[in-house]
Specification:
mainly alpha
């Protein structure tokens, strides 16, 4: 038995299991505070810790489970189409609309302007332009159509898709560089963020496999590909990621995940 013995030379003592579990729960709670409009504690100075990034998977599972409960309540009275509209509206409300806003601002900025400075100025503008409107309409229509078409694995698919989309945001935080020194992208550049994102990815992959097998794992993988794609485009257009870019990753990741789930095998 080694319990209670001091750590050997050069060996770091591991925290007790209860502390590790408590840290994971605190990370998920902090992630929910960042990803939703719920009145929950947010990380100090706006910068999430590595534990918070790891908690993005737990936050996604909670959001997905909430939608499953709403789906179960609505199924006896509404057909799939109207239920899908209500579920997407509920997810937007729970998220405070921040991801849709980020998608609109990112589309306006990354697809417009002539210089990186102009594009960043467009993204800071509170007004929504043509690219932003088109992006939101197109992505929400894809989400609605795909969710409406989901058959048997609808409940499991909700959990997998929402979790994968939020973990894609954690991955983007883990691999990207900030576009400016005074924005959310810079505030979120925390130490060990890659490790936190890796934990979130592992949890999402495990959930996808457990709920839907290989199809769930492939869905998570497809949604996660959105993160490097958006990070690459942002780096080319404005020099790095902004807070709006992370919102865009969440919405695009959700659309990709739902489209994968309803695709013909």
């Amino acid at each position: 038995m080694t319990a209670g013995l001091p750590a050997g030379p050069g060996t770091a003592a591991r925290p007790p299991l209860t502390r590790r579990v408590g840290g994971a729960a605190a990370g998920a709670l902090a992630a929910l505070g960042l990803l939703t409009a719920l009145p929950l504690p947010r990380p100090a100075h706006r910068a999430p810790s590595a534990a918070t990034l790891a908690g993005f998977a737990g936050a996604g599972l909670v959001l997905g489970g909430t939608l499953v409960g709403l789906e179960a309540a609505l199924a006896p009275v509404l057909p799939a189409g109207p239920r899908s509209a209500v579920l997407l509206a509920a997810l937007a409300l729970l998220s405070g609309g921040i991801h849709l806003d980020g998608l609109a601002d990112s589309a306006d900025g990354l697809l417009g302007g002539r210089t990186p400075e102009e594009r960043l100025a467009i993204m800071r503008d509170s007004r929504v332009g043509g690219f932003g409107v088109a992006a939101v309409v197109a992505v929400v229509l894809c989400e609605y159509a795909a969710l409406s078409a989901l058959g048997g694995p609808r409940l499991q698919g909700l959990v997998v898709a929402v979790t994968a989309s939020r973990v894609a945001t954690a991955l983007a935080l883990g691999i990207s560089t900030p576009a400016r020194a005074d924005g959310l992208g810079h505030a979120y550049a925390v130490p060990h963020r890659g490790a936190g994102a890796a934990v979130a990815v592992a949890v999402a992959a495990a959930a996808g496999w457990w709920l839907l097998g290989a199809r769930g794992l492939a869905t998570v993988g497809a949604a996660l590909l959105v993160a490097p794609a958006v990070a690459w485009l942002a780096r080319r257009r404005v020099g790095g990621m902004t807070g709006d870019g992370f919102g865009a990753v969440a919405e695009l990741g959700l659309a990709v995940a739902l489209l994968c789930l309803c695709a013909r095998r």
